[in-house]
Inverse folding.
């Protein structure tokens, strides 16, 4: 059996299409050959309906993006985890002002540590998914280094390699530094503009082979994602899959 790690799709990539035809879009994703899908908060259908369809199509669900599990959202997070039988959940985003200063970072990490404790109490691992604002310098220290110092070892990171690069850091070096604390790696591509359109993986400026090589022993999944695009979304989903599998970077079903 191949030692290549499996490839999945973050369903946020095709969110508009899911709203128009949920079942048809998921079937199209499965037909491409993706081994898994990563859901997100706000799927346009009942959780049970989505879970049944994923099982029917043999699409593995290994993680989901969820809101911060505060008192208002804890129950919803657990419902997602139960519906998809998840071993972990990932906080999709926190606002830039939560990383503006050293004190803000310490407070944010304290909240994340508390969220991690809640996750562990419910037999879940917790990850945090970055954007670009977590990678600036504060008083000569990289924000990521400060985050790693303050986070409990049990709270992991889902490294979005594209946003790392947009934030001014080298994605290959960052995934090496984070290592096994980031077993779920987001792959996207484009022209490294915070608010610009993105390209299919392998069709932009990202060093995708370098990222995969650097995480070959620590990654469990590679997850394709595209936030914005002027092109057809399903075509980008296909092109990303083809690039990753044809070049021996990830493992798919076809």
């Amino acid at each position: 059996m191949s030692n290549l790690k499996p490839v999945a799709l973050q369903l946020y990539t095709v969110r508009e299409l899911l709203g128009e035809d949920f079942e048809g879009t998921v079937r199209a994703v499965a037909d491409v050959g993706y081994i898994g899908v990563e859901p997100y908060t706000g799927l346009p259908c009942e959780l049970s309906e989505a879970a049944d369809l994923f099982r029917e199509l043999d699409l593995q669900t290994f993680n989901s993006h969820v809101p911060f599990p505060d008192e208002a959202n804890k129950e919803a997070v657990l419902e997602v985890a139960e519906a998809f039988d998840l071993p972990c959940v990932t906080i999709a985003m926190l606002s830039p002002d939560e990383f503006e200063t050293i004190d803000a970072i310490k407070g944010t990490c304290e909240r994340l540590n508390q969220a991690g404790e809640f996750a562990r109490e419910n037999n879940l691992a917790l990850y945090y998914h970055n954007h670009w604002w977590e990678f600036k310098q504060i008083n000569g220290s990289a924000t990521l280094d400060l985050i790693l110092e303050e986070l409990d070892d049990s709270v992991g990171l889902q490294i979005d390699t594209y946003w790392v690069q947009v934030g001014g850091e080298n994605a290959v070096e960052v995934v090496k530094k984070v290592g096994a604390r980031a077993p779920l790696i987001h792959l996207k591509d484009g022209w490294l503009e915070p608010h610009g359109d993105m390209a299919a993986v392998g069709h932009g400026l990202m060093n995708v082979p370098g990222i995969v090589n650097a995480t070959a022993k620590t990654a469990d999944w590679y997850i394709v994602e595209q936030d914005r695009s002027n092109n057809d979304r399903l075509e980008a989903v296909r092109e990303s899959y083809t690039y990753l599998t044809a070049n021996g970077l990830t493992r798919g079903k076809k």
